[in-house]
Design goal:
By secondary structure, the chain is an alpha/beta fold. About 40% of the residues lie in helices and about 15% in strands. The structure holds ligand LCLJCK34, the ligand Cc1nc(C(=O)O)sc1CCOP(=O)(O)O and magnesium ion (MG).
Length: about 220
């Protein structure tokens, strides 16, 4: 199954003046598994050009590229997938247009939305938002970790947390059952975005190892004498 551990979303406002391509390059240098190109204001031709440039960078790094909202741009750029919200192109329609293996992610806030998205062909879900965030003005209040646990137990596809997640709370999001976290400010909003991504990745890996130990599927490291 594809790794979604650290999923970095680019943002022209939060990204400290860096282009989407620069943000993507820093994110993968820090170990991001997935980069999402997200821009609400760019024209289609410019977005496609940016997506193609990022495609080269993610491919070199062995990371995946997801384009937000725009299935057409994702397909034209040779991206790995598209991310769709509840008001975007319905996942069933996208699935009909997408080639085999193309990744479709869907934002959900309830178990009903999660089940509908999976039935429609979603490859992964994001609990949107997990905590409140200042990065997306219309995100609304956070659904919290109880909702994350409930949705995780109701579906069989990877579930990500998004919204208000950073080094201070990523471990609890993973411990609640998230397969990964999608972040903006915790990586692209940081002066040293490579270091920030590395730190997030280390925390995610450690939280997943803790869960395996707790479940008895991994032996803890021996204590050194
Ligand atoms: C990984 C991920 N999760 C959620 C979203 C939000 O999607 P949406 O609700 O369609 O809102 P916009 O991002 O389009 O404003 C996302 N982009 N990525
Ligand atoms: C792009 C996006 N979508 C969200 C959703 O809830 O659907 S929250 C969000 C931005 C998340 O930014 P930060 O990591 O800085 O909180
Ligand atoms: Mg959208």
């Amino acid at each position: 199954m594809a790794a979604y551990d650290l999923y970095v979303v680019t943002d022209s406002e939060v990204g400290l003046g860096r282009s989407h391509l620069e943000q993507a390059s820093l994110a993968v240098a820090g170990g991001a598994d997935v980069v999402q190109l997200r821009d609400k204001g760019m024209g289609t031709a410019a977005l496609l050009e940016e997506a193609r440039a990022i495609r080269a960078v993610t491919e070199d790094a062995g990371a995946r590229l997801i384009v937000n909202d725009r299935l057409d741009v994702a397909l034209a750029a040779g991206a790995d997938g598209v991310h769709l919200g509840q008001d975007d192109l319905p996942v069933e329609e996208a699935r009909l247009l997408a080639p085999p293996g193309f990744i479709i992610g869907v934002s959900v806030g309830t178990i009903a939305e999660a089940r509908a998205a999976v039935d429609g062909g979603a490859d992964y879900l994001a609990l949107s938002p997990t905590f409140s965030t200042g990065t997306k003005a219309d995100a609304g209040p956070g659904h919290g970790l109880a909702a994350l646990r409930e949705i995780k137990s109701a579906v069989a596809v990877p579930l990500l947390g998004i919204g208000g997640i950073g080094p201070e709370n990523v471990a609890e999001v993973i411990a609640a059952g998230a397969d990964g976290v999608a972040v903006v400010s915790a990586v692209v909003g940081q002066e040293d975005a490579v270091r920030a991504a590395r730190r997030m990745k280390t925390l995610i890996t450690a939280a997943k190892a803790d869960m395996l130990v707790a479940s008895g599927r991994l032996m803890p490291d021996p204590v050194q004498p």
